[in-house]
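Technical note accompanying the year-one report. For the benefit of new consortium partners, we illustrate the data format agreed upon in the data management plan: each record pairs a sequence with a C-alpha cell string. No post-processing was applied to the example shown here.
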Amino acid sequence: METKRITVNGIELAYVEQGEGPLALLLHGFPETPGMYRHLMPVLAAAGYRAVAPYMRGFAPSQVPPDGSMLMKDLVADANALHEALGGDGDAVIVGHDWGGFTTWGAAALAPERWSKVVVADVPPLRFYERRAAVPEQIHKNSHFYFFQMGVADQLVPVNDFGYLDWLWNHWSGDVAGYDPAEDIRAGKEALRDPANLRMGLGLYRQNFPADAFGTEKWEMGRLLAGLPTQPTLYLHGSEDPVVDEEILADIVAALPEGSDGVLLQGVGHFPMVEAPEEVNRRILDFLGK
C-alpha cells in the first residue's frame, strides 16, 4: 500500500489506507507500526470501511513533533483531528492497541460524537491497572516502563541492532503456533532507528509516566483518561498478557456502556492483531455488525 501524508494538529503524519466508506481509524503502539493491522485492514475494507492506519507522531516516517511532545493529550488530539481531516462522520469507528489503545480510550471519551464504536486491545482503562499494580510479577513484567525513564536507555536500546526490542517483543508475546514476529520487530526498529525517533518513542513513557507524578493527583495522563467511552466498546486481551484476567475482564465490561463486550483470547500475548488475526478479525466484524 502507498504511504500517504496528511497534516493534522500541527504535525505531518504518514498513513496507509485501504477501502472506501465510513472511517475506521487504526492506532498502533510501541514498538509497532501500521503493519500491526495488515490482517485487519483488508477485512474492514471488504466490509465497507475506509481503513486508515497512521504512523504515530515521532515514529518514522511521520514527523518528529517540533515541540517534542509525546503527551497523551496530543496523541488524542491527533486521533480526533484525523477524524476531521479524513472526512469522518458519526459512523466512524476507532481501533487501538497498546499506546494506540490508550489514545483510543481518550479520543472516544472526549469526542463521542466522532466515533460510533470503539475497539481496544491489551490496554485496559487506567482505573483497572491498579488491580495488579503491587503484584511483583506484574512490576517485573512492566520493567520497560521504569528502564525507559533512564537517560542511558537512549544508548542501550539501540545496541546489537536494537536487541532490547527483540527481547521486549518476545517478553510480551504469547505462545501461538505459526506466528513469526520477525517482520513486526524489524518494522518497529526502522520506525525508531533514527535517534530523534527513538527519543520520541521513549518519550511516550517519560512524558506520560513521569517519575515525580505517576500515580499521584498530579499525573496528567491519569486525569485525562479517567473517563470511559459512552459508545459500545469491544475490549480484547490476550490471556498471556497478565495485566487482565477473567475477573478483571468481567469488571471492565460491566463498567462499559450497553452493547459492549470483552474477550480473553486464549494462548495469545500482547499482540493479538498479529498473533491471532483470524479470531480478532471475526470478533471485530461481529461487534461492528458486519
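Partners are asked to follow this layout when depositing records. The mean pLDDT is 96.
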